[in-house]
Amino acid sequence: MSSDSPATGIFRGIGLSLLGYALFSLHDALIKSIDGVPVFQIVFFVVLFSFVPFVFMLAFSTKEISLRPQLPGLVALRCVFTVSSLLCVFYAFNSLPMTQVYSLLFAAPVMITLLSIFVLGEKVKVIRWIAILLGLAGIIVVLQPNNVELSLGHLAALAGAASVACTSVITRKIGSREHSVTLLLYPMLANVVVSGALVMLVYQPMPGIALLKMCAIGLISVMGQMLMINAYRSCEAQYIAPMQYSQMLWAIVYGALVFNESIDRNVVLGSLIIVISGLLFIWRELVVSVAQPVLRTRNTRATGGPQAVSVESDKMSGN
To answer: How many domains, in total, are found in the chain?
Structure first.
């Protein structure tokens, strides 16, 4: 944590997180802009390019790092969910308007809280149950089951949110025992191996512009993660978590200006309900001293790595 005043740290953390979420939104818009390329192929090259800044980060580290997992079974399970989340979310962005994808991904904190009951044994008070029900209601409003035919894109977005939730709960369970580099490296390797095997079945020649976009996505994803890591180091997670909802504004801007997407009133209404649900979780965290299953959750899908480092295990930074 910085030695500056608390207020300075809070403003720095909020600024870094807003910039990080803006980069993630650009990351998602670039994914959506790639046409005619199989999802497996996009994932493979994006994660492959993500290794470039990651390797430089390791090369310039002055700390000795052990890459051997302390809990290999749970690390492997986390890899499964990170691969699933990446494939599902990339497919969703290629199939649906950005606002719809974000609305459904915002349901991840609701799912995390539900999973924390069964996996982590946490007790959920009345306020959180209200927030859970609000979040579920918001999902129903977004999906409009009576008016809109559900597509594979909708199911992929929900599956992506569920995978993110599972990844986050596992990260919380093992984060104090595993180094952040370990949590970042193995999901990246898993994504490369799985998507690489599938690419051999569906590979299609790509124009140079598509390859450049994938390179940019990989670099932006790592840049966004580093911004978020530093944001969490600058101030408490309770100030960072609400900034995620700024992505809906970016989704509206990109959707209207780049993809000619109309703004659906039901999507906006459902998104507001889901945002209120998420803010209720955060308010509960802020006012009452309880464990935090919700706050450090974004964006495990970016490269399959953690968005916030574990304080106890991150020796690489010297913190």
So the answer is: 1
| 170: in domain | yes
pTM of the full structure: 0.76
Task: Establish if 1 belongs to a structural domain.
Answer: no
| Chain segment 224-271, per-residue pLDDT in tens | 888 887 887 787 666 776 777 788 888 888 988 898 887 777 877 887
Q: Is residue 101 part of a domain?
A: yes
- Are 305 and 169 spatial neighbours (Cβ–Cβ below 8 Å)? no
pLDDT tens string 159-216: 999 998 888 888 878 877 777 778 788 888 999 999 999 998 888 898 999 999 999 9
114 inside domain: yes
Q: Which domain holds residue 213?
A: 6-287
Residues ≥6 apart with Cβ < 8 Å to 303: 46, 47, 50, 54, 184, 187, 188, 191, 218, 221, 222, 225
User: In the 8-state DSSP scheme, what is residue 313?
Assistant: T
